[in-house]
Amino acid sequence: MQAQDKLPLLSVRELTIALPAGGDRAHAVKEVSYDLHAGEILCIVGESGSGKSMSANAIMGLLPPYLKPQGGQILFQGKDLLTQDEQTLLSMRGKAMAMVFQEPLSALNPVMTVGDQIAEVMRVHDAYPGEARTKRVLELLEFVGLPDPATLIHSYPFRLSGGQRQRVVIAMALALEPALLIADEPTTALDVTTQAQILALIRRIQADKGMGVMFVTHDFGVVAEIADRVAVMERGVLVEVGPVQQVLNHPQHPYTRRLIGAVPHGRAKARDQQAAETVLEVRDLRKTYSSGGGLFSKKRVVNAVDGVSFSVRRGQTLGIVGESGSGKSTIGKCLLKLTDIDGGELLFDGQDIARLTERQFRPLRSDVQMIFQDPFASLNPRHTVGRIITDGPIANGAALAQAQARGRELLQLVGLEPSAFDRYPNQFSGGQRQRIGIARALALDPKLLVADESVSALDVSVQAQVLQLLADLQKRLNIGLIFITHDLRVAAQICHHVIVMHKGRVVESGPPDQIFDAPQHAYTQRLIAAIPGKEWDPTLIRAAA
Asked: Is the pLDDT higher at 128 or at 486?
């Protein structure tokens, strides 16, 4: 990191951004000030709505039209960015400052090749003419660690994995070697090993190029892994800023202490494994997918689930962990009969549901319910919360009055006000929507819940609340829970038993303290080694939270 007596690369001074009238607060960002030096990584942390992404978008001049800075300065390379016209900002974006967005698939044009999209950044700024442009694209693809750049340059985004797409977005951002790189939640949707690779790449870029990096995140493990300094935001206000060791290990503000207190610590503990009734037994489950097989291509067969066996007991949680593509979500689809299986048995309460037709399975569908990953996409925006929760019971023969009364009870059970019954999903936060999804799943009194990455998109404090809610509900209702996740820290916290998936197979299984404290398989060891910030122990300051 550069000496702090030098002028900062970026200086945000008393930045204030007003919100439209009628909301619960007047400002998205209020009188925020911080500096970023060349050769430094500054992490901006906070929950959704804290203003961290808003301030980053203000730097890039990418605020929506209805949001206008009311005051302050953003000083970058001697210019106040808030006073520059759009043409000047256009000349700076990509060349002097660049941004890496959270969702790479949305950031990339689906009908342009990877090479053309990277080259477009150079074309806009009249850089690297002729053959030099293609050479530069190949250099960038190699620099960010992508395989076979000469072939990849002609590929389309949909053919790449999530981690590869994120590397392409980073290559675009680096094309003209900007002095400032802003990364807005670039690893949130990635599994732990891909996340580790992207974090290592960003650290290497920052060291090689000496650029200043602003990293926006809600993941304190990421902060512990890469930050030089940390700025903490709450409801648009900067509440704490300082060196990473000071903020993480000696937080001063109560909000920072609460956030750190909610971080899953990854320390597995032995859980009660006393005998309970088995609600589900999976034996030798197999599912394959085929593609290709045309005139010019060979048929490709992928063993998504390859001979998987496990059991789930009432009142206990089975964790299924692994990288993207390991087969864990496919198992969830098989259990709910959302896809056909190619072999094996699914014994639910002793009955093999794999052999049942859809008509035969329909009476049992209410016994197996799913909590989906995305609390925004999984709720119908045109239906009230009450209808979302009661549609299932009514379709299964419940009287309207009975279903509505039960729906209101469930809202209270998941920690929401009964008045939520008559409101719409857009009136709730992400954590509240996930609670609505849980209430919907419980409305049919299931014996088994399948939670597929149900907390991965949530802020750390909301995540802690939802995890505690699931644990309380499980204890109270004595239901079995299958918890599918790529976050090993969360699995260690909530699960009674864990299976580790790799390329469709179970490579290791056991209680969480065994899996996480003494992993036996090399793949499990790699997963645990890739956990960001694993050397930092948030439990050391929990007493102060």
From this structure: 128
User: How far is 431 from 87, CA to CA, in rounded Å?
Assistant: 39
Question: What is the per-residue pLDDT across 50-72, written as a single tens digit (0 to 9) for each?
Answer: 888 889 999 999 988 888 888 99
Count of domains for the chain? 2
Rounded to whole angstroms, the Cα distance separating 220 from 462 reads 14
Instruction: Give tens-digit pLDDT for 422-463.
Output: 999 988 877 788 889 999 999 998 999 999 888 876 778 878
pLDDT at 545: 45
Helix and strand numbers, DSSP H then E, in the chain: 20, 20
Q: Sort 22 into a burial class: Cβ within 10 Å, 0-12 / 13-18 / 19+.
A: exposed
Closest to 183 measured CA to CA, from 17, 285, 57, 86? 57
Q: ∠322-364-327 over CA atoms, to 5°? A: 15
Q: Which of 490, 510, 486 is nearest to 499 (CA)?
A: 510
* pTM of the shown model: 0.81
Q: Is residue 302 part of a domain?
A: no
Any domain includes 164: yes
DSSP letter (8 states) at residue 232: E
SS3 content of the chain, % helix, strand, coil (to 5): 40, 25, 35
Phi, psi of 209 (to 5 degrees): -95, -15
Q: Which of 177, 194, 218 represents a domain boundary (last residue)?
A: 177
For position 419, what pLDDT does the model report? 87
Give the per-residue pLDDT at 2: 44
Pick from 150, 177, 204: which residue ends a domain? Answer: 177
| Cα 306 from Cα 284, distance rounded (Å) | 8
The tokens for 148 are 């076979």
What Cα–Cα distance (Å) separates residue 191 from each residue in 188, 322, 437? 8, 8, 23
Mean local confidence (pLDDT), 461-469: 83
Q: Answer whether 476's CB lies under 8 Å from 180's CB.
A: no
CA angle, residues 42, 45, 51, in degrees to nearest 5: 105
Write 109-116 long-range contacts (CB < 8 A, 24+): 109/157, 110/156, 110/157, 110/158, 111/156, 112/156, 113/153, 113/154, 113/155, 113/156, 114/141, 114/152, 114/153, 114/154, 114/155, 114/156, 114/157, 114/160, 114/168, 115/152, 115/153, 115/154
Neighbour tally for 468: CB within 10 Å: 14
Cβ count near 222 (within 10 Å): 24
Please check whether residue 186 is in contact with residue 103, taking contact to mean a CB–CB distance below 8 angstroms: no
- CB count in 10 Å sphere of residue 363: 10
Expressed in angstroms, the distance from the first to the final Cα of the chain is 30
| Structural domain containing residue 502 | 314-340+357-533
